[in-house]
Amino acid sequence: MKKIVVLTGAGMSAESGISTFRDANGLWRNHRIEEVASPIAWANHMDLVLEFYNIRRKQLFEVKPNAGHIALLKLENYFDTQIVTQNVDDLHERAGSKKVLHLHGELKKARSTVDEHLVYELNHWELKKGDLCEKGSQLRPHIVWFGEAVPAFSEAVIMVQQADILIVVGTSLVVYPAASLMDYAPEHAEIYYLDPQANQLSARTNIHCRAARAGEGLPLLVDQIIERYKTS
User: Fold this and answer.
1) Is 92 among the residues known to form the active site?
2) Of the four, 39, 56, 104, 105, which is 20 to 30 A from 151 by CA?
3) Which distant-in-sequence residues (6+ apart) come within 8 Å of 77 by Cβ?
4) What is the distance in angstroms between the CA of the first residue and the CA of the last residue of the chain?
């Protein structure tokens, strides 16, 4: 059975109505995104950071998976399919995908500020000052902030190294280290890059670029891959 790895970015979720809070000038309520998504911001402006993520979390409870998310689920009927996402939403899981690795954390989870292994599911959208872990410390968003390491990256590298087919969708490939994952694909792997701004990124002949949004382009691409590879 062929191994398919799918790397998804913000464009995947945008079609479900999820705002990235990063407009043309990179500001949110007159704050740079880095100023509300960093350890320094948490230390100096906890209330602001909590508000930023509460707004994002509230929005997540109001949206649904789109056609792109649902299309990826079809791959599991024919292939060993692994999703690696830069997104912190749970839309892949809600669409039914069973193997999802979140590179940058998960919005519907919180974790201890004294023990990173204490992670909790959030069943509501609001995380407040005074919400404590079992060790008595403040809970923070379970998000990889600017300036923090990406613990899941090494696991993602191993997944990509095992891929027969790599699908990269909805990402501009400018956020590192996630943007470098494509470079770990084996030489024999077929690589499909799907994004409205897709361009040929490499001299490698096995990269197929398609300028399309996830909700429109993925259903077509998935059907083509199934038809081509389902018996191999």
Assistant:
1) no
2) 56
3) none
4) 7
Find the mean pLDDT for residues 145-164: 96
pLDDT digits over 189-228, tens only?
999 999 887 765 555 566 888 889 999 999 999 999 999 9
**Mean pLDDT throughout 71-83?**
96
Residue 122: pLDDT over 70: yes
Residue identified by tokens 């993602």 is 156
Spell out a b/e string for 197-224, using b for 16 or more CB atoms within 10 Å of the CB, else e. Answer: ebeeeeeeeebebeebbbbebbbebbee
Phi and psi, residue 126, nearest 5°:
-105, 125
Give 1-18+63-104+146-232's CATH code, choosing from 3.40.50.1220, 3.40.630.10, 3.40.50.2300, 3.30.300.160.
Answer: 3.40.50.1220
Which listed residue (102, 104, 188, 208) is catalytic? 104
**Beta-carbon neighbour count of residue 138 at 10 Å?**
18
**Nearest-5° Cα angle at 27, 102 to 7:** 25
| Calpha distance 171→195 (Å, rounded) | 7
pLDDT at 24 over 60: no
Q: Helix, strand, or coil here: 27?
A: strand
User: Nearest CA to 72 among 44, 99, 48, 39?
Assistant: 99
Rg over CA atoms, the chain: 18
d(CA 144, CA 153): 11
Distance between CA atoms of 71 and 195, rounded to whole angstroms?
16
